[in-house]
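Moderator note: this is an archived Q&A kept for reference. The question asked for a predicted structure of one protein chain; the sequence and the answer are reproduced below.
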Amino acid sequence: MTKTLYVIGHRNPDTDSIASAIAYAALKQRLGNSNAIAAMAGVPNPQTRYILNRLGIPDPLFLADVHPKVRDTLKRKPVTVGRQASAYEALELFNKSGVRVLPVVDDFNIPCGLLSLLRLSESYLLPSQENLRQIRTTLTSLARTLAGSYLCGGGDDSGITLNLFIGAMLEESFTSRIEGHDPRELLIITGDRRLIQKAAIERGVRVLLVTGGRPLEEGLIELAAEKGVTVLLTQHDTATAAWLARLSTPVSFLADPEFASIGVDKSLAALRQKLLTTNVSAVLALEGDGTLTGVATKSSLLSPLPYSLILVDHNELGQAVPGAELVEIEEVIDHHKLGNNHSNSPISFITSPVGSTCTLVARRYKECGVEPERQIAALLLAGILSDTVILKSPTTTEGDQQMSAWLEERAGLVSADFGRDIFAASSSLKNYGTADRVVAADFKLFTHEKYSIGLGQVEVIGFDEFYSMKEKLLTALADVKRRDNLFIAGLMVTDITTETTLFLVEGHTLISHVMEYPQLEPHLYELKNVMSRKKQMVPHLLKILARV
């Protein structure tokens, strides 16, 4: 099975996150990995939406989470048995497939029971003394299992319980053997023995099974019809016929109607709970309509997942798509500080203190000798211009400038003009719709020892809109602080024309005496010449937290 490789950025993705995911997935595909798929862990913000629409690039696949699901561990096309199938047919399936449990399904593939090889073996190898002769079957199943044909009477799907006797003796001995038994509960198996056949018919037994393929002599069929005896003819010898008759029991009579089941969209953790904490050998995985998708056993928990991840624009699992800690991470491409957990095996980890992950992705195109398509070159350029605020941010490096120039040529764009278009089209806070969306658009969590803080950032042209929304934004920050149990929750509102940031923060009283920037009013600070969250704001906050 070839794995799907999701190339995905952080939660609340910005332009750099989505652009680098799309571009790096495209590079992987160009290099021969057709299973690489660009994905996103959140919806595009207004700036990213403008860029994607302008360039005619579709959204990446949205993944709300990558928690392993039950469906990820299942082998499709499970081995099943129909409810009318016989125990003999079930044994053939067990032997052919090597499975230890068989779901019993109806005509619509909805399970109605579970048959285990152990249960089936016990039923035939360890029968109770009282039931040594008993056979539970239907006339239809009996005939099918014996490959027989009816000489009198016909198939019936009604369940019956019969006591089996073999007529391989003198008539007097046979008659005494069945004395005291209800004839309508008898299955008599005999070969070409006319006297035994006649005695059974005259008694009015329920079924007479004639072996060896020799039909009844003249007059006996008419007598059987008169007595209501079903006569079945089979080519098998008597010993084989008796064995097969015992195995003609429909599996619906043997299966356990109580079985464990789980929806295919449930988490692998929920499946593990069922398998390891309950006394079940298998769990049936069902679609929403109740149909069977697969059978999960303890070995399913060891099955490799059909997908893995490449993380771009982040390396901390706290910022990754939910469930990333449970999935194999094959690569990381990032330009932030290291905060990743250990990996179980060596991986490709590309990091550099540049202004944008798109710079690193563009560099990979050059290193691999692959010319990016015009659309992809423009997208990478947009990611660099967004993260470096048109190459004005203090995070901007010579590498960002070089890659911007290289991408300009391939995209047929001028960086300064393209950057101004991007920010002009997306700088209005009204584009976000609500204060909650403004805060959440590019919100990231950071941890310093015992403190967890959250920081969002938006770029604007002028602060008029911000002041009109300030109280609603503060309320949104308070909600986030409470929901995520943060020490402080802040929003950087950065004016790209004046290169000044207004920092709105909930929890300001905890840091006001060490903030080191002018406080314009409660909750609000002015940070001149501060444009970068990564290089300026986060290091400053982590420094002052050490003094709180």
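Archived answer notes: The CA atoms of residues 185 and 344 lie 66 Å apart.
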